[in-house]
Structures are given as C-alpha cells and as structure tokens.
Give the backbone structure.
Amino acid sequence: MSVSVHEPGAVAEPLPVRTRGGVVWDTIRHRPGAVVGTLVLAVIVLVAVLAPWIAPYGLHEQVGPPFEAPSKAHPLGLDDGGIDMVTLLMWGARISLIVGFAATFVSMVIGGTIGLTAGYFGGKVESVLMRITDYFLVIPDVPLMIVVAAIWGPSLFHIIIVIGILLWTSTARVIRAQVKSVRERVYVKRARALGAGHWRVVWRHVLPQVAPLLIANTVLTIAVAIFDETALAFLGLGDPSRISLGKVIENAFQRAAISSGAWWAIVPPGVLVALLILACSLIGQALEESLNPRLRVAHLSAHTFRLRPLVGRKADAL
Amino acid sequence: MSTLLQTDELNVWFDLPRGGTLHAVQGVSVALEPGERLGLVGESGCGKTTTGLALMGLLPSSATAAGRIELNGLDILAGGEETMRAHRWVDIAMVFQGAMNAFNPVKTVGSQIVEALELHGSSSGRAARAQTGELLGAVGIPPDRAERYPHEFSGGMRQRAAIAMALACKPSVLVADEPTTALDVMVQAQILALLDGLCRDFGLALLLVTHDLPVVAQLCDRAAVMYAGEIVEEGPVEELYHDPRHPYTRLLFAATTDLNAEALPVSIPGAPPRLDRPIAGCPFRARCDRAFARCEHDRPLLRAVGSRRVAACHLNDVPLSLEAVR
Amino acid sequence: MPPERRAAVARGSPLSSNGAGPLLAVDGLAVDYALPRGLVNAVARRPREAVLAVDGVSFTVERGELLALVGESGCGKTTTAQSVLRLIEASAGTIEFAGRDITKLGSRELRLLRRRMQIIYQDPYESLDPRFTVERAVEEPLVIHGLGGSRSERAALVRDAVARVELTPPELFLDRYPHELSGGQRQRVAIAAALVLEPELLVADEPVSMLDVSVRAGVLNLLDGLRASSLGILMITHDLSTAARYADRIAVMYLGRIVEIGRAAEIIQNPQHPYTRALLSVVPRRDPRDRAKPQILKGEAPDATRIPSGCRFHPRCPVAIAECPTHDPALRQPREARTAEHQAACILA
C-alpha cells in the first residue's frame, strides 16, 4: 500500500475507494467467468420478463401436430400438445426464475438472520441456532416435498416455501462464520466500547462487511433453487397449473418424447436450465473468490524471479 | 580474512498488479565477514526484508533482480534459481519474520528439524535425530523437547527452534528478519544473547534486518541504514550514533525513545516516497531538515566519509563554511 | 468553537463529577477466566476451574496524569485496562471513577459512563471501520450518544477534534478512508474519535507499538499534550523506554499483580524490585556505548494456571532467599525509597 498523504498533512493523492457496490461491480467486470455469467443471466431474465409480450405464440395455443419437428416457423418444434417450444421455454423460464428468486429470498432472509444472530451473540444462542440448522440440514428434500404435497397440495407457494426451508442452512453457516470473524475485528469491539447498542453495531459495522459474501451466497443459492424446482417438477411434484422448465421436461418425458425421437422437446429446456444454473454459479463463484482470498488456489509456480543484467550504476527504472 | 558475503549493486523490481514496477531495492552493496554482526535498519517499506529475501533467492515470480551476490567470491545470483538453490540453507540461511509461527502444528518440532536435515542431504535417520538434539541444545532448548508440538512451546522457545532449524545445515551466514519484534523484552534479551553466542562460538556471520535501532546498537558491530530502497549510511554503530553523516540516521535516532535520554523523541514529518516512480534528487529531501538547493535535482551517491564508513548525502561534500546554507 | 461551549455540548452527563479525589481509583481488582470444562467434567458437574488473570491490583490515576502499566505478555495489564472500562467483568474489587464505584452499574448508566472513558487500541490498521470516512468515524461517538445537537454543530465538533490531533487542515482528511492514510494518521483519527466526547479518562493500549519509529514520537507527544486538559491517561505498554519518557508514574506488573509502583523517574533510577531491575537492565539503549550489564532471567513467565507459591517471582528471581517460596510479599514502601509513593512487593526491598 503506498502512502500518499503525508503526515501530518500535505498534498493528497486519493486512491480509488472500494465501496460495497464497487467490490461486486469490480469483480464482475474483471473476471471473464462472471462477465459471461452475467450476460447469459441478463439475457434469460430479460426474455423471461418480457415473455407475455414477445412470445411468438400463445402458451396454450395449438399450432400444429404433437411433436412436430423444428421448422422455420417453429425453430424448436412443438411439444406433445402441439404448442410452440420457444414459447414454452420463455414462459417456463419465467416460472423457474420466479421460484428460483423467491425461494432464494426466503432462504436468504431466514439463513441470514439466523447466521447473523448466531455469529453475533455466540454462546448459548449460537449453540441452539446451530443445532436447529443442523436439524434442517439433514432433512431429505424429496420426501419432504412429497409430504407437503400430500398434506397441503402442490402449489407454487408451497414449493417456494419448501425450497426456501431446505436451502437456508448453507447461507446460515456461511454468514455465521463471517459474522464471527467480523465480530472480533477491533473496530467492532471499539464501537461497543464507545457505547453503541447491538442494533447499531450490526447495522453499521457488521452487516456492511458481511453483505458482499451474502450476495455471493445468494447468487449461488439461486442456482440451487432453480435446480431443485426443476427436479421437483420433473418428479411430478410441481404445481400442475404452472409450466416451469422442469414441467416442460416432465411433460415431454411422460408423453414419450424420447420414443418419438422428439429431442427438441427435452434437450432445449434441459440446456436452458443448465445455462441458468451455470450462469449463476459463475457469478457466485467469482464473487466468493474475490471476497474470500483463501478460496483462491495458490499456484506452486515453476517460475521464479527473473534476472537482468545491470546497466550502469544506480539504475533507476526499467 | 576474506569477505564471506558481498553484494554489489543489488536491485530488485516488483511488477505491480495494475502495471508499472516498484523499485524496491536500489543498488544495495553490503559486505559481511565471518563472525561479523551487521544490522540492516530501516522502517517499513525501505526494502530491507526484500534485500534479505534476495540474498536467499526467495523472491516471488513478480520480481526481477540485478546485480551481484558473491558468496566466498562466487556470484550466486548470476545462475538464478539453480545456483541459489545449491547454496540456500547450506551456506546462507534465514530466519523469517514470524518464523516462530511457521511451524507445522501437527508435527513435532524435532521431526521438522529432522526433515530439514534430510531434505538437504546432510544426514538422515538416527544421525539426523542426534544432530537435532545437538542443534536444540545449541539454542538453549533441552533436547528432550524435540518430541513436543509447536503449541507446547512458548513464543521465545519457538523462535529458538526456528533459529535451530535455520542452522541445521551449518550455514556460514544467517539472515534474521525481525527475530525479536514479537517478543517480550526479557525474551528478546535471551534471543539476542543467543545470537551473540552463536556468532562468537561458530563464526557465524549475522545480517540482522530490523527497524529496532536500540537492538542493533546492542548486538551489531556495524549497521547499514536503508531508506527508500537504498543504503543511505553505513558504518560502525557507535559512529552512526555519535557522529551520523546522514540526516535520516540522525533523525531516526532522535525519534527513538531511550531509557536514559533526557529529551523527548521527535517525529520525522512526512512519509517515504513512492517507489513506483523514478525519484529525482535525494529521496529524503522532502523530510530532511537540512536539505538545500542541490538536493532537489542531484541524487547523492554513497561516498566514503571515514574509514569503513559511507554515507549518501551532499552535506558531506560541502565545505564546512557552507554547511549552514539551506 | 470555544472550549467551554464544546465541553458543554459534549457533556451533560447526569453522573456528576466529584472534583476532589483521584479520577480513577482501583482497589483489589481481580479478574478470572473460567476454563472450559470438557464433556466429562460437565456431566459430572465438577466446578469450573478459574484462572486468575488479575489478582488484587490497586492503583490510582489523577486528572492530568499519565500512569503507565508496564509488563510482559501474560502479566494482566491488558485485562486490567479492559476491566477498568468494564469491557471485561471483574470478579472482585472496586473501581471508582470520579468518586463513584462503577463495578455494579447497570447497562443504562454504563452507557452514560462510556462517554467519559475512552480507549485507544493498539492496531491502527484494524481499529477504524474501513467503510467509514474520517468524518463519519469521528462523528460516530456523538451520534451514538445523541450529542452535539444539529448536524452542523456535530460537524464543527468533528473538525475541532481532527484539528486537535494535528491532522491539519482538517478538511483534507475528513472525507478520506482509512486505507488512504498511514498508520500514524489512522491512530490520530482513533484518538480524535476518542476525544470528541471530551472524556475524562483515556486508556491507551500499546498506542504506538505498531507504528513506524519515525512516527511514534508524534503520537506519543500528542497524548502527552492531552494531559494539559486534565485528561487522565492509563497507558499500557511493554516498552519501558516509552514509559520512562512519558509517564508520570509507572506500575510494573508480573503474573497478575503489581510488583512495583511509583514516580517514573524513581522507578527508572532507583528500582527496588528484582524484576524491575532485571527488566531495566535488558532494555536495549540507543547508544552503543551504553551497554548496561544485562541481567537476563532464565525461562519465561509461567502462565496463569501455574502460579508459583509464595512470591510469584521467586523461581526466576536472581536474589531469592529461603523465605521467598513461602512468603507472598505485599506492596509496601521500600527502605531505600526516595519518594513517598514508591512501593514494591519484595521481602528484600
């Protein structure tokens, strides 16, 4: 770190300030993985949001025979009900993304709160909260989903809640670890010594330090949530009244798309889900790496320092 | 007595992540004779640690080095990593900053020293264990402690163990980087006495890299003061204190608290210059209390100012009658 | 802003100030740490063992005085300082601040107390929130305690505090972030944040040990100058040279006790406790010719779980006699003391 402001007081040469948004934006800009991920995600989200207006055909509009092959009018062919695949994908992405984001929101709120509380207060509070977390961690998701579907019926709302309940544990653990370490930072202790109340310390000192990691974790959780929803829909546990990408795949599977040779009914939705998850993973991992230096792999370099011949005495610059 | 270690115009540049280079070590020339204690003194960022690492050839891949490092007359820098590896630990060893924390916590201290011995082909098996016992004894640790783990050692004992490990292959030069900075004053005295004894008994040459002037004053015969990557003054420690020939040396002593001194210490205003840009004139002039016109554009070179003394300051060139001119 | 107005705005605490008597009077302070029990012992309900980190410490700090608490790591000096501020709970003893015992204060009154006692930490690189500008960092104490009136009044108080720590002109520093400042400047900001509340007691925990040598004197001289505004300063340091130059009085601690206390000049020139004498003899001097004969003690101080019997120092003491393993000396005035306040805990003193 070069010190540019002389002490005590002289000409200042300010260095660029790293703000909270700056870390996230910086990371996204400088890592190719994150750039690609952001672009892909942005495109898909945009298309999904605008689906009602830009979908070429109606969602329930039969425009041809079942499993018609791709053609110029229908680049991805038709599904088992004669509905245009491209339209299906757009609407399907909508639901998948809605569930993904909503479930992640639930999990982030629960996990973040529990992680923050456990990490900040420590002691008995932490023990209790962490044991609860462990309990939720070992619940198997598919059986739980079946049970919920059986008792309350498989609606989108229930799916969001269930996925949220399954996913918050990893967030809680990550946040708790980070909060514990931030809690021990001298400036946090100092704020307490100044007389700041818990709320103030958490809101002003702890949360800003934890926020970037929370964002990284959230993005990664979105990937998992989308995957979970797709899997559940594929297993037939999804909301039957909504079409998500998983449902599209499930429909095709159930209606014997494979034996009909209609690859366009199964592969594109699968690829789209994979793209979504990949995009979120790329962004999330890039953020995590830049925030947590220990995640970076140190390469045992075969290269060592370089030599150059000395030119004259007191060489000043290269 | 032939010079054991000699550097000549040693330079190190570091590539900066966003482009540009940092000229961390600028033309450093030091000499060490067997049994000599030389202090390399300076504050953070002056390049002393980098100089020590360069002597060991332990610079990262972002570094570029130039100059000569002669060990017993042989230039070991010229051959790059190949030659440096052959001499590292065997002829020249280093105790790093925070070395006492660099032990593997899941292996006993003894086994780690044995490992060092075996790695460099000095000995193995029973002979290595016997040697380990001797080494620990030489640094004041009861040999039976070899079976203990690092966390069972106190800070001072771990530092001793680190010194023992560095001396495992019987080098003739030891570079110690801030060996006592994290230690209490009594433990510091013990470690300094240990280093003193090792130099006397084994003819070990010691390069003590530190920011702590009083430690250098007590342990070393000679000292080189570094500022902004270069040596600004070098000579016997007594003369540096009683007759400094560079304002930084004088001001640095004046800024150090002392048990017996009457006057309060005085800070040096300002901060060291940035090393990622070429420096015009004397690097210290912005903070110097005796800078004059020539210092702005003419960079002073190290010149002899007495027998076995050098300093890089224009004040030493000016005839006495003009010295007061600012 | 005139000092009287500044003090009036910043103060206004309902805890009244007792004009006479010492600012801080600690008596018989003890702090213990409970050792973790382990599952077997917990199930068997064995009582927790406690480590007495501070075992009966008594001292005073007057207004305008700097008391240095000196000792090696593990002697309990940091624990003492933290319990004075009630950041750690004491297990015994009284702490009187401005004539009032604060050991039993509830959290509300404690919060009010925090305005009058402040702490400076050792690590300037960690003690400021990296996301706060200098202005926000110095303003924060005022906001926490709801002081300073309007925004502009607070801004004026902040400017004053920043100027007081010699970061001038203040405008140049107010919107800087910590990473744009040097270690010495950060420490000055931490001091400004402590001063903005006009505290009466300042605890400085190794305030300069992580700063470059050329910068230390400035920060120390700044702290030194604060005594003129009747600020009492309790400075923790392991560096006897710093204590010798800046402290009015010095207290030497060993294994949780004060072994010697008195006027700084007296302690340095006429030490009566063998530990103090040994410590002083090994402190390196600037002058290479000034090589006092060092009295290097063997080994290191035992940790607090294994406190020696009798006099705690006897296993390492170069002049221990037969009585020492069984006799635990109390602090009293040594025979060869030159001033009244000089006390040492040694049977031979």
